[in-house]
Design goal:
The structure is a single chain. The chain is an alpha/beta fold and about 300 residues long. The protein has a single domain (about 5-295), classed as Rossmann fold, CATH 3.40.50. It is about 35% helix and about 20% strand. It has helices at about 15-25, 50-60, 75-85, 145-150, 160-165, 175, 185-200, 240-255, 260-270, 275-280; strands spanning about 5-10, 30-35, 60-65, 95, 105, 115-120, 130-135, 135-140, 145, 205-210, 235-240, 290-295. Strands 4-3-2-7-10-11-1-12 form an eight-stranded mixed beta sheet, with helices on both faces. Strand 2, helix 2 and strand 3 (about 60-65) form a beta-alpha-beta unit.
């Protein structure tokens, strides 16, 4: 079986981001959703609007998000719109809080935990294709966040996030915190939710980019994230989300940067790679990949 292609550049710039997208050779059709994390107010490691502006505009894309399941400053629609504006995203492109007008259920074919449904913002039906533009970093619950987390938790509505975090126990955000002890169930639920998103859009209508900079052990959903201990690495891109996240994970593990210790500890404590392995077992991508270094071309 042919290995998945993962493209890489050390050039973390608007030009580098456009170049790596073009290397994918994909043409995302119709109205394009660009899924990012808009970042919890107080945090500062989320993707810089100036970095992503060129690519978002090239795609004539719409930045999409959903409200959070935790009661921060993006829990309700009004506060979330303020965060989007304050963080500079509203000024660079159209933005859409996809669960602003409700949610829908989309089917999952293979489901041990989520009972065959993924719960997402109703506006997902307004888009024909999707770019998962993710900031790869640590995460307090998932171990790390990349393409798979952005596609699962990120695309889920507020209630959908509770559904995934509780491994299919509850759809009520305030109830989920008492049902988060099944760590592997949560990680497996993220993989299941990804299957629903990929099936919804179609595999050939999705692309994935991970920007590996500002590498904190904490997610962009953290209002007070730990300072990054690793140096910036670069940008990775693939049409295979499993290979992409596995490549970024392996790059951290194999890095010579001594600052990696805290992030590796977090990833191992949370069994983070299990999401990637589960996604592979569901047929969402390959664990085998080759890196194509654009800087050497």
């Amino acid at each position: 079986m042919e290995k998945a292609k993962v493209y890489f550049t050390r050039d973390i710039s608007s030009e580098g981001l456009i170049r790596i997208y073009e290397a994918l050779g994909v043409n995302l059709p119709g109205k394009v959703a660009v899924k990012i994390s808009t970042g919890e107010p107080g945090g500062h490691n989320f993707l810089n609007p100036n970095l992503i502006k060129g690519l978002v505009n090239k795609l004539d894309g719409t930045i999409v998000e959903c409200c959070t399941a935790y009661r921060g400053k993006r829990f309700d629609v009004e506060s979330h719109w303020q965060a989007i504006k304050n963080h500079g995203f509203l000024a660079l492109a159209p933005c859409d809080i996809m669960d602003e007008e409700g949610e829908i259920e989309i089917p999952i074919a293979n489901s041990r935990h989520l009972k065959g449904i993924n719960i997402v913002g109703s506006h997902i039906n307004n888009y024909n294709s999707c770019l998962m533009l993710s900031h790869f970093k640590g995460h307090a619950m998932g171990g790390f966040g990349g393409a798979l987390k952005n596609m699962s938790i990120g695309m889920a509505s507020r209630n959908g996030k509770a559904w995934i975090h509780s491994a299919g126990f509850t759809k009520v955000p305030d109830e989920m915190w008492g049902h988060t002890d099944d760590q592997d169930g949560f990680l497996e639920s993220m993989a299941e939710a990804c299957e629903g998103i990929i099936n919804h859009f179609g595999k050939d209508k999705m692309a994935y980019i991970n920007v590996v900079n500002n590498i904190s052990i904490d997610c962009d959903c953290d209002a007070n994230p730990h300072a990054p201990e690793m140096k910036d690495i670069g940008i990775f891109a693939s049409l295979d989300p499993v290979a992409l996240d596995k490549c970024c994970y392996d790059t951290i593990i194999n890095s010579e940067d001594e600052g990696k210790a805290s992030l590796i500890k977090r990833m191992e404590e949370k069994h983070a790679i299990h999401t990637v392995d589960e996604a592979a077992s569901l047929g969402l991508g390959s664990l085998e990949y080759e890196i194509i270094d654009l800087d050497l071309r």
